[in-house]
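testing teh design pipeline on a random one, pls ignore if ur not involved
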């Protein structure tokens, strides 16, 4: 299945955090792919895909957000996995 504006032969760096080595062209391509996914309403009419960095662990998070309420519907990795990572970081 091809979504308008998304080239299926190019993988999306879903879990790769932005770094100083990330090229602007790669970031534009990722942003365009996210916009295309949201425009296709693959996650529902009132939902959108977002990528953020967790402040405590500095890990990338993929979230599906309700557009109206801004409530997080689903998050990868889930909150409990972040808590485990924080605990391990403190203990390690």
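output:
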């Amino acid at each position: 299945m091809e979504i308008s504006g998304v080239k299926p032969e190019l993988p999306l760096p879903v879990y790769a955090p932005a770094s100083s080595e990330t090229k602007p062209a790669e970031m534009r391509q990722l942003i365009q792919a996210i916009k295309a996914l949201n425009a296709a309403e693959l996650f529902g009419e009132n939902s959108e895909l977002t990528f953020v960095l967790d402040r405590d662990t500095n890990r990338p998070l993929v979230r599906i957000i309700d557009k109206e309420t801004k409530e997080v519907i689903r998050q990868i990795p889930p909150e409990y996995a972040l808590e485990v990572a924080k605990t391990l970081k403190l203990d390690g």
